[in-house]
Amino acid sequence: MFTARLLAGALAALMLTQTVVPAVAHAKLLSAVPKADGMAMPMPASLRLNFSEVPELAFSRVSVTGPDNQPVAAGKPGAAADDPNALVVPLPANLPEGTYTVEWTAVTDDGHKTSGSYTFEAMQ
Question: Which of 23, 77, 97, 107 is an S-S bond match for 59, by CB 3.0 to 4.6 Å?
Answer without folding.
Answer: 107
